[in-house]
Amino acid sequence: MMMAIIPLALPNKIGFSLPFLYKPITTRGGGGGGSICSAFTCRSVSSPTSFTWDDVVQASLPDYAPNDSSDLSGFFEKIKYCNRGSSEIKSEFIPLVIEDQILGYIHNGFFDNYLRRFKDVFVFVPSDSRFGTNVTLNKTLSTPEERTRVVGNVIKYLAEEEKELIPGIRNELYPVAPSFGSPPYFSVERAAAPYFGIKAYGVHMNGFVKRDGEKFLWIGKRSPMKQTFPGMLDHLVAGGLPHGMSCVANLIKECEEEAGIPLSLSNQAMSVGAVSYVDVDRYRYERGVLFCYDLELPGGFIPKNQDGEVESFKLIPVENVASVIRRTHFFKPNCSLVIMDFLFQHGYFFSIVSLVYFHTHLAGHLQVYLCLPALIKTRTPMTCHKNHTN
């Protein structure tokens, strides 16, 4: 059955000038009653039924907040949200060092309360001429395989004994390395990666369609059964990059699993850059690097989820998607960053004032690097960014 394009009209470009209006909207909970929350503050990560596609449509309408289409503050808020707690990093986290390489950062409290007891695995170094106070692994753990096995046993134990400490165990390994593409010193359970402050990589793809001179984005609504951010809006395709898999192979796999995109289409995806962010939340120090891809899809293509992780899809005009990001917290937070990158590359931030101002704030203050069209790079076929060290 064909999915209809949501027939909404907004300004063709996003400018920069006016104050932003936040307006309450009605959201429908699972109990059948309505509740009121701010469209800007309503995240409800734990409540997968906190908003519907009707709420998404309502938030994208021009009369929802008249004359706000030129304001950027809603976008800045999403960037700030993904870069929380920066001032805490130096004072509360200590480096994880192996063989003279800083591989991550561990919170003092997480080490003292949970890791210190495993003295045959983790070693506290009170003073080091090069790194100062740091944590390392026992020197008897000399190979990546040994480290992966032993650290994995610790994580498994903590996840079983401390039920709320490391939620969402996936039995999926992330490489622990100083930079992308370099040999890993060991691998760690994906759900535990932020607790060790390692760089974690992912592939995110915007799937778009052109019709009558207008661009539309396919947007997914995550399954209410997802362990993380259930029921929130997402890209057409996105996934973490596990150990031992290339960006290209992972993207092709995710295209098939999440949206039923065949190889004949997925291998046409274009690599368009990367965005990165640093998010500190208590014991978690998330250093995310997202490799961004665009794929222009045929007008008649309809995505079909294959793995049960997506509840439904909608094809929405790009301008409307921008309004939803600006006005709400309906999108999974880091997905907002990648879609903002898409807005840049496809010319939806047209004012040179807003372009320079926005990019200055991103690159200079928030450690999120978005691509300026034509000024930074050109679009290339699917590749990995092998030397990404941010």
CATH class of the largest domain: Alpha Beta
**Mean pLDDT figure:** 79
- Low-confidence residue ranges: 1-49, 363-379, 385-390
Task: Assign a percent range to the helix content.
Answer: 25-40%
Query: How far apart, in Å, are the first and last alpha carbons?
Result: 43 Å
Dominant shape: elongated
Radius of gyration equals 21 Å
Q: What order do the helices and strands follow? A: EEHHHEEHEEHEEEEEEHHEEEHHHE
CATH topology of the largest domain: Nucleoside Triphosphate Pyrophosphohydrolase
Number of discrete domains = 2
- Specify the CATH architecture of the largest domain: Alpha-Beta Complex
Number of helices: 10
Beta strand %: 25-35%
Number of strands: 16
Q: Major sheet, described briefly?
A: 8 strands, mixed
CATH homologous superfamily (4th level) name of the largest domain: Nucleoside Triphosphate Pyrophosphohydrolase
